[in-house]
Amino acid sequence: MPTSADSATRAVGAVTENFWNLPNAITLLRIGLTPLLLLLPWFEGPAWSAIMGFGFLAISLTDLLDGYLARLHGTESRIGKLLDPLADKFLVMTAFVMLVAVGRIPSWALPLVIAILGREFAVTALRAMMSAEGVVIGASPLGKWKTGFQIAALTALLVHFPLLGLPVQELGLVLLIIATGLTVWSGYEYFAAYLAGRARP
Q1: Could you give the CA distance from residue 126 to residue 140 in angstroms, rounded to a whole number?
Q2: pLDDT score of 110 more than 50
Q3: Does pTM surpass 0.85?
Q4: How many domains does the chain divide into?
Q5: Beta bridge partners of 166
Q6: How high is the pLDDT of residue 74?
Q7: Is 136 exposed, middle or buried (0-12, 13-18, 19+ CB in 10 A)?
Q8: Sign of the CA dihedral with 84 first, then 66, 189, and 134 last
């Protein structure tokens, strides 16, 4: 007859099996590579900036890969749905902080960065609160759009110098404005949905 200890062991085993899979490993790799952005102040030349920018883009695109693999192999998990957006936020927030530090985001654009970071902190807190209640929210379609524009803006701002005749820095600032609008809008949707759910009897 199975004991409570046996049940606990099976439960732990299930959690371990769900967590240690390829999609989650890729997500953890994205988190592990994020601190490389801290090197930006020491590698600000055109060549290094291009490497940093396109490296950031490649790391960001692993988000598509881990999601695809999770769906393909049926390894989607609650921890993966929680960890994946946190990895994205860690990557994006670090990039914004470093771009502000090296002056590639001008003072007039600082309110945009504050709005984006404030939204990310607020939604992360909301996710944590709902997770404690046993509810895990996946990324919404609008949330994916805002992440896409954030990544595009950050890639351009990291590259910074003109490339193939394009004013990359100016393009990055335009994308940043669009990303800010989508970020605030998607944040409003998250909180509106949460409050609407709370209001239901």
Answers
A1: 14
A2: yes
A3: no
A4: 1
A5: 163
A6: 61
A7: middle
A8: negative
CA distance 171 to 157: 8
Instruction: Give the CATH number of the domain where residue 118 resides.
Output: 1.20.120.1760
In DSSP notation, 73-114 reads HT---HHHHHHHHHHHHHHHHHHHHHHHHTT-S-GGGHHHHH
Residue with tokens 């820095």: 169
pLDDT digits 0-9 by tens, 44-99:
889 999 999 999 999 888 877 666 566 665 656 666 666 777 788 889 999 999 99
Beta bridge partners of residue 163, listed in sequence order: 166
Q: Who's near 149: CB < 8 A, 6+ residues apart?
A: 175, 178, 179, 182
Query: Per-residue b/e over 65-87, b at no fewer than 16 CB within 10 Å?
Result: ebbebbeeeebbbeebbbbbbeb
Closest Cα to residue 26, out of 74, 88, 93?
88
* Domain containing residue 19: 4-199
- Positive/negative CA dihedral, 144, 181, 158, 37: negative
Burial string for 138-150 (b: 16+ CB within 10 Å, else e) reads ebeebbbbbbbbb
- The secondary structure element, H or E, covering residue 127 is helix 110-132
Report the distance separating Cα 121 and Cα 67, nearest Å. 23
- In angstroms, rounded to a whole number, what is the distance separating the alpha carbons of residues 154 and 172? 7
**Are residues 43 and 4 in contact, defined by beta-carbon separation less than 8 angstroms?**
no
